[in-house]
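To whoever picks this up:

The parser on our side crashed when reading a file containing two proteins. I've narrowed it down to the boundary between the first structure block and the second sequence. Both blocks are reproduced below exactly, byte for byte. First block:
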Amino acid sequence: MKWNLRMMAAQRDLWRPTEVLAAFQQVGFTPSLSKVAALWSGTPVTVRLDDLDKMCAALNCTVADLLQAEPLVAGQAAAPESGQRAVGAEEQPAAGPVRPVPRGRRGTGPRSLPPS
């Protein structure tokens, strides 16, 4: 998930991270300016759920508006042809989210040693 903070802030006529920080402080959410700048740039940042509610109150939006799903990369949408499935996965319906599957090893020999 990526943050969609910049677009939500623009709807409230907030054009800089410092202005967003001031709006957050008005509702009782006091993150650091570096955290607000990271949110502003769309960088993945950890936020507590109650703080997320305060962010939505400050920006007058919903959580769904604030978070944006990342698009699937080409070839990632289809399940691997090798028949591998995620642990505990059962037959999945045709529609719905695809569960992640671990990649197989590329080579068949032993793993190489780390650089010294």
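<<boundary where parser fails>>
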Amino acid sequence: MSTTQSERLRELLEPLVSSQGLDLEEVEVDSVGRKRVLRVVVDSDTGADLDQIADVSRALSAKLDETDAMGAGEYTLEVGTPGAERELTEHRHYVRATDRLVRFQLAGSGELVARIIEVDDDGIDVEVPGVKGRRPTARRLALADVVKARVQVEFNRKSKNEEHAEDTENEEEA
């Protein structure tokens, strides 16, 4: 059984990323002209801040320098997080996307945009936004029915703190 370079790199780098309290989400090697780029995507349940990214980048760079995993040629190491519109492919991704708006591609029943409320081993509880003044509706999705899911960027959604402040103001006025 042959192993791709990305798989070998994942085996080499995953313990280092885990030791930093992060999950290794993706390893990708691309050729850009004569140079190669090694892209490493990391994440955690609480997200990854710039200091964590810098620490893991230094650790990965040192490990790669002491091995021949990238060969003799030049390469650039890029370490980052999945980004705002990440694709959800594993159970932990759905858990991390709780309270986020997600576009689901469902087997046999098309597309659905809904907010993840709760995730368990069997499925996802979502809230489908109401249309034209109607109330949102709850729905249960089986994980097996989700073909593809991607977090959606929301520019005008209030944060939990803003919602709580408004609720407090409304209670005080009543």
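After patching the parser it read the second block fine. The first strand starts at residue 23 and ends at 32. Residues 50-66 form the longest helix (17 residues).
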